[in-house]
Amino acid sequence: MTENWSKAVQSLQSMDLGAMGASLPTGTATKAPDIRFAPDKLQALQQQYLQDVMGLFSQGMSAPSTGGDKRFAGEAWGSNPVAAFSAAVYLLNARTMMGLADAVEADAKTRNRIRFAIEQWMAAAAPSNFLAFNAEAQKKALDTKGESIAKGMQNLVHDLQQGHVSMTDESLFEVGKNVATTEGAVVFENAFFQLIEYKPLTAKVYEKPFLMVPPCINKFYILDLQPDNSLVRYAVAQGHRTFVVSWRNPDASMEKATWDDYIEQAVIKAISVTQEITGAPSINALGFCVGGTMLGTALAVLAARGEEPVASATLLTSLLDFTDTGILDVFIDEAFVQFREKEMGKGGLMKGQDLASTFSFLRPNDLVWNYVVGNYLKGETPPPFDLLYWNSDSTNLPGPYYAWYLRNTYLENNLVKPGKLTVCGEKVDLNAVDIPVYIYGSREDHIVPIGGAYASTQVLPGKKRFVMGASGHIAGVINPPAKNKRSHWIRADGKLPKTQTAWLDGAVEHPGSWWTDWSTWLKSHAGKQIAAPKTYGKGKYKATEAAPGSYVKAKA
Q1: Pair 159, 357: CB distance under 8 Å
Q2: Rounded (5°) CA angle 277-283-289
Q3: Confidence of residue 393 (pLDDT cuts 50, 70, 90)
Q4: Are strands 545-546 and 210-213 parallel, antiparallel or unpaired?
């Protein structure tokens, strides 16, 4: 037993972090750091491990506890002592390996990389992922006389053909039919995006139109899934004349497109076309995730030009200050960014499926292995879920755009350095974006950590309102009031101390969606009400096709 322990420690000490990342999207190997362990932690871990092993063996063939882990929670695991024992041994080893990672004496980035790699390793090695050890899958195979295995093979062949693991029954969804169904029309398009104007649902609308800029890393209809959870429809129903940017899914014709192109030809262009169609001197705008980063950049470019066409901005789970990027930081270093720059900095495409896989493996048990087990070992068809259908509808990114974004945000955090960046020919300074801003962050967000979302309050100079919602990057945002789910937190005094933790000390929890608070805030910046338009577009901007348009239907 002690010999096995020593081998485990030696194996971890000799790990090449670059090699560990070879199956992950790091793209390049780096020199392995010198890994050392805190002696006191190592000794405590060894003692605890030996104690737990002896405890397991002392139970004999009675089914040991699996600690409530949902992978082993089914009745079949509990009624099969051998399966339960294998699960308990696995969980013990997993705890110990994570303890070893925590005992490493190294800089924070190295420790996080080791921890992330071990999490991936242990998630993949779970006995539930293998038919030979999965008691539930075995029982189902017996109960169905092998039909579940045959169905699992069919599911595997299907997923191999489509190029990704099915998270939902994708055959039940169609963009424009039962997702992205809010009524509207495309009123402008260029090589980068289509601009959709939505049909008013009220007799009067606010005089300042409302433009939504979603992330170009995904398709816009996360904001318009179904009528009962559509943020687009909600905004329209609140009386806002609403426009949305629908990004083109890049193909080879866009492989040289840059960050500057997206800011000038897409975000700034969408703002100006919205103004021209409505005749409004200024508009209100929203940016979601990377869309918020792009909106913030565009507003800084416009400010440098002496222009202020946006009266207020909403930032949903967005990063302007990239000091706190959470788990994504494990992928980013100089070697990786240089690799991507050489690979596609002058041209090429970052494939959508590669991006989708990266985000899925940030939560491997929930977004990867859960479906491997259900689809292939148990032969199940995952239930219909609009959000997961959207999640699987991936998009490409132009290589130069992607490489610029990696270096200037995640690696060097240049966006918050006044005058450091030149975008669209202008020196960027977010301190010049002096407008009211509503900033929302999700408490359990693993893509834009709550501290990272909150950091925008310290960057932008205008009057700001910060709200924290429960849940994660998507579920926290797409939280309609009618569902009466998930709390949100607000500070009544409006103070914005330096850290999110300090802010939270004075915040009060409110049951239900943050949408109603945001709606009240947005209306206060929307001006007076005027008669709703009877037609889409204006002048040279005419309706060319019904929403959701054609760009959103292009597959990566």
Answers
A1: no
A2: 110
A3: very high
A4: unpaired
Tell me: the pLDDT tens digits for 408-439?
999 999 999 999 999 999 999 999 999 999 99
Give whole-number Cα distances, 286 to 64, 145, 270, 294, in Å: 52, 54, 12, 11
Name the one residue in this structure whose structure tokens are 């070879």.
22
Catalytic residue, chosen from 45, 186, 289, 433, is 289
For residue 59, give both structure tokens. 């139970």
Q: Give the CA radius of gyration of the chain.
A: 25
Instruction: Give me 467's structure tokens.
Output: 């709200």
Residue predicted with more confidence, 58 or 396 = 396
Active site residue 216: no
- What 31-38 contacts at long range (C-beta under 8 Å, 24+ apart), as own/partner pairs, is 33/106, 33/110, 35/104, 35/106, 35/110, 35/114, 36/104, 36/105, 36/106, 37/9, 37/13, 37/100, 37/103, 37/104, 37/105, 38/103, 38/104, 38/105
pLDDT in tens, 123-162: 999 999 999 999 999 999 999 999 999 999 999 999 999 8
pLDDT exceeds 90 at position 539:
yes
DSSP state of 383: P
Alpha helices in 473-514 (DSSP H): 500-505
Neighbours of 257 (CB within 10 A): 23
Give the residue among 348, 362, 353, 347 at the shortest CA–CA distance from 444. Answer: 362
Max distance between CA atoms of the chain, in angstroms, equals 82
